[in-house]
Sequence to fold (391 residues):
Amino acid sequence: MKKLLLSSMWVLFFMASQVYAQTRTITGTVTEKEEGGPLPGVSVMVKGSKTGTQSNAQGKFSISASTGQTLVFTSVGYLTQSITVSGSTINVVMEPNQTQLSDVMVIGYGTINRRDNVAAVGQIKGQDLIEQPVQNFEQALAGKAAGVQITIPNSVLNTPPVFHIRGTNSITLSSQPLIVVDGIVNFTGDFSGGESGGNALSNINPDDIEDIQILKDASATAIYGSRGANGVVIITTKKGKKGDAVVTLDSWVGETSVNRLPKVLNADQYVAEKNEAIVNGGGNLATTAAVIGTDANGNPINTNWEKLLYQKGISYNSTVSVSGGNEKTTYYGSANWSKQTGVLRTFEFDNKSMLFNIDHRANKYITIGMKLSYQNNQDLAAISSGSLSAY
Fold:
C-alpha cells in the first residue's frame, strides 16, 4: 500500500513539473507596420481563457502562457492577429484595417483618408439611403448624420424639405446648404412657382448615389467661400467597376394615409347646433332658423369633407441599372420611374429619369469621363378654382 501511494505521489509531482515547465512568461513588442513605431494599448489575450494584458507606451507587453496556446492581438483600426506560442519572445507587427482607416472622404479640396481628416465631416453610404421608401435623397438623410435636420414643411408632393446643418444659420436668408453633385454645384429650392411642389433636387435618384459627404465646419468648406456658410453636401454618383456586367433591379411600393383627423359635425348636427345658438341668443326660429341646403335634385346636401379632400396615397418607385467594364473603360447606366399620389386629392408627382456614367483611361496620366442625365417630371396640384394645374 505504501509503495502504491509513493508511486502515485511521484506521478503527480512529474505531471506538475511538466505543466510548470510549459507555462512561461511571454514578452514582446507590438509595432505599427507603416511607420514602424511602437503601438500602445493593444489588447493581448490568451485564446480560450480570461488571461490578458495590454501593450504599454513603448509597445511592450508581458503575459503568462503555455507552449501551444494562442495569443490574440487586437486594436481598433488594425487587423486582428493570432500567434501560437512556441518561445518566450513574440514581436508583432499590426497592419491597418484598410476598410476603416483608408476609407476615402471627399472634402472641398479633394479626397483624403478617414484617419487624416480633422474636419467635421459626416459620411453616408448610398446603400443606407435606398433602404428607405422615400422619393428623394433629402428625406432619406433624416437621422443619418449628427447635426443634420430634415423637416417636411407640408403634404404637397415634391416639396423641397427644410434642410439645416447645425441649426438655422440666418434670420432673413436661406439656411439651405450648398449641394455639389460630382463636383458641380446644383440648383436648390422650389422652382414650381405655383401651388404644386417643385424640388430642384428631385432629379437625383437615391439609387444612383454612391455616397454623401456632409461638410460642417469652416476648415472643410473654406474653398466654397460664403456659399458654404450653411454647410456643403457633396454627392458622388455611382460609376462602373471592372468586371462582368451586373444588372440590378430595385423596386418598392407603399401607401400613405392621414391619421388622427379631428371629428367634425355633419350637416344635421351643425344645423341643430346653429338653431340652438339662435334660440339661446333670443332669436325667432320661425324667421331665422338654419336649414340644410339641397342640390339640383332636391336632395339634402351633407358633404363629407374628409372624403372629398383626402385619399390614400400610393407611392411606386423602380430603378434598373447596369454596370461593368474592363481594364480601361468602365460604365454605369440606370433608368428610374417614380410615381406618387398624395393624401390630398388631385396631387400627383410623376418622375422619369436616366443616368449614364462612363470613364475611359487613355493612359496612366489621362482619364476621360462623360456623364449624361435626363429627367422628365410632372407635378400636379389643385388650385383655388378646383381644377388641375401642371408645372
